[in-house]
């Protein structure tokens, strides 16, 4: 596996691959890789001739006071996992390599989409995500790029950016990978102590409750959301940021739980903010 730390190295290798007629898959990550990331790499390996994984904790998507400095990092472990799953290149740039000191250009969706759900408490987050993903698209020029349904709003926003900016890149969404007890895998799970780890199960339990209500015929979003909210509020270590039902494509609120509606939540367990979701009908 090639370890590239500069944009020039990536461009040179990708142009060699393209000259051989090979297709390129890109998996953008912030590192500290786990089986959720690995599932994206596996999917990319199965669909593309060469797979590039970016491993970059992107500062522009963190607001002051968020966990940019604390964000876990372990590049050696990441490389081992990526080799095991058949990635061809890891792009591991420094912040200075990715951002000019006077960088002032952003890619931002100006509709309400990035202001909903996570955007309410993280107003600059999706501008940072779109900007870094646009840069990665320009650097790697992939045929396909792989994103997890775990970050459902991010996936919807990237799809919108690709449409609006005419990127000729196929966006492939991949299902949420969970721990055996149901907690969605996340690099941030490492922040949880053992008591919090147990408390974190309320997210998945609330999702199961919502899914059960829908299966049993309840399609009123307000009723399902309020039952899910109540079940989370029973856990003393949990503090809800949001539990919402939105259209899976536009991320705008809905009243009816039709197929394709995204039921998403962000919940603080102690100081750790965790997200999870399901899509109705999937
Ligand atoms: P991150 O490193 O957290 O920025 O995540 C990089 C990519 O991996 C994103 O597209 C995430 O949605 C995806 N991802 C993270 N955790 C999971 C998971 N548990 N299941 C599926 N995809 C995931």
Write up what this structure looks like.
The model has no long low-confidence stretch (mean pLDDT 98). The protein has helices at 7-19, 35-47, 75-84, 95-98, 118-121, 125-140, 152-164, 194-199, 201-215, 221-233, and strands at residues 2-4, 24-29, 50-55, 89-91, 144-148, 170-174, 238-247, 261-269, 272-279. Strand 3, helix 3 and strand 4 (89-91) form a beta-alpha-beta unit. It has two domains: 2-174, 3-Layer(aba) Sandwich (Rossmann fold), CATH 3.40.50; 187-277, Pantoate-beta-alanine ligase, C-terminal domain (Pantoate--beta-alanine Ligase, Chain: A,domain 2), CATH 3.30.1300.10. The longest helix is centred in the middle third of the chain and has 16 residues, at 125-140. It has ten helices and nine strands. By secondary structure, the protein is α/β, with parallel strands linked by helices. Residues 29-30, 36-37, 39-40, 147-148, 150-151, 174, 176-177, 184-187 line the site of adenosine monophosphate.
């Amino acid at each position: 596996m090639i370890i590239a730390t500069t944009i020039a190295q990536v461009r040179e290798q990708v142009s060699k691959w393209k000259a051989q007629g090979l297709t390129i898959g890109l998996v953008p990550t912030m590192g500290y890789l786990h089986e959720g990331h690995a599932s994206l790499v596996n999917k990319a390996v199965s669909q593309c001739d060469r797979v590039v994984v970016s491993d970059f904790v992107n500062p522009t998507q963190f607001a002051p006071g968020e966990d940019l400095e604390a964000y876990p990092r372990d590049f050696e472990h990441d490389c081992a996992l990526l080799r095991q799953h058949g990635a061809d290149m890891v792009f591991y740039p420094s912040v200075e390599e990715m951002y000019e000191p006077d960088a002032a250009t952003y890619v931002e969706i100006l509709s309400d989409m990035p202001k909903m759900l996570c955007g309410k408490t993280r107003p600059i987050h999706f501008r940072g995500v779109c900007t870094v993903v646009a840069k990665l698209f320009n650097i790697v020029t992939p045929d396909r790029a792989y994103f997890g349904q775990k970050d459902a709003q991010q996936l919807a926003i990237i799809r919108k950016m690709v449409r609006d900016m005419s990127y000729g890149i196929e966006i492939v969404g991949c299902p949420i990978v969970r721990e055996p007890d149901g907690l969605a895998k996340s690099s941030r799970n490492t922040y949880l102590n053992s008591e919090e780890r147990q408390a974190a199960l309320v997210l998945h339990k609330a999702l199961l409750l919502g899914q059960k209500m829908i299966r049993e015929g309840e399609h009123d979003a307000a009723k399902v959301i309020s039952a899910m909210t109540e079940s989370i509020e029973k856990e003393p270590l949990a503090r809800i940021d949001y539990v919402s039902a939105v259209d899976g494509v536009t991320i705008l609120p809905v009243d009816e739980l039709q197929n394709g509606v995204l039921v998403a939540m962000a919940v603080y367990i102690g100081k750790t903010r965790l997200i999870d979701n399901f899509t109705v009908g999937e």
